[in-house]
Amino acid sequence: MGERRYITFSAGEHRFAVPIEKVGEVVSSANVLPVPGGRRPLEGIISYRDRAVLPVFSLLEILGEKEAETSVLIVVAGSKESPIGFRVRGLGGIIASTESENGIVPYEGKLGGPEGAIAGILKKTGGDHILLEIEKVLGS
């Protein structure tokens, strides 16, 4: 039975999990520069590696919350050719789950967002996490 690994993090009052292969890295940046004429949930841009800029979005706003995260931690996800970032409050770590123990149940909370963005609740000892389909969150 295959083991899946997830990176976990928090944003607002929620705990999330994303398959680890979908996350490139986590960076810290206090300087998210607003984009003139940019619309929410786009927060702005940051300098990023060999690219000119990395767009940073509000995960909470994408999922239907009115509040935005103010942390300096940014999860970088998406494709290597066109990554994007979204702010998170804190990192939880990496958890592993096998198919036999993987308790994924339907999500019945208040978050919304693009169809299919929330895959369910990953039930694990130590706490539940909202399981995200990051491609759907990012609109890919």
Features:
140 residues, six-stranded mixed sheet, five-stranded mixed sheet, 6% helix, mainly beta, 11 strands, OB fold (Dihydrolipoamide Acetyltransferase, E2P), single chain, globular
Describe this structure in words.
The protein is mainly β and 140 residues long. The protein has a single domain (3-137), classed as OB fold (Dihydrolipoamide Acetyltransferase, E2P). Helix content is 6%, strand content 51%. It contains 2 helices and 11 strands. The strands form 2 sheets. It has a 6-stranded mixed beta sheet with strand order 8-1-2-11-10-9. A hairpin with a 4-residue loop joins strand 6 (73-78) and strand 7. It is globular. It starts with a strand and ends with a helix. The model has no long low-confidence stretch (mean pLDDT 88).
Query: How far apart are the first and last residues' alpha carbons, in Å?
Result: 29 Å
CATH superfamily annotation:
CheA-289, Domain 4
Strand portion, in percent? over 45%
CATH topology: OB fold (Dihydrolipoamide Acetyltransferase, E2P)
Question: What's the number of extended β-strand segments?
Answer: 11
Helix count?
2
Please state how the strands of the largest beta sheet are arranged side by side.
8-1-2-11-10-9
Q: From the alpha-carbon coordinates, what is the Rg to the nearest angstrom?
A: 15 Å
Instruction: Summarize model confidence as the mean pLDDT.
Output: 88
Q: Percent helix among the residues?
A: under 10%
Task: Reconstruct the topology from this structure.
Layout: E1 3-11, E2 14-19, E3 23-28, E4 42-48, E5 51-57, H1 59-62, E6 73-78, E7 83-88, E8 90-98, E9 103-105, E10 118-124, E11 127-132, H2 134-137
Parallel strand pairs: 2-11, 5-7
Antiparallel strand pairs: 1-2, 1-8, 3-6, 4-5, 6-7, 9-10, 10-11
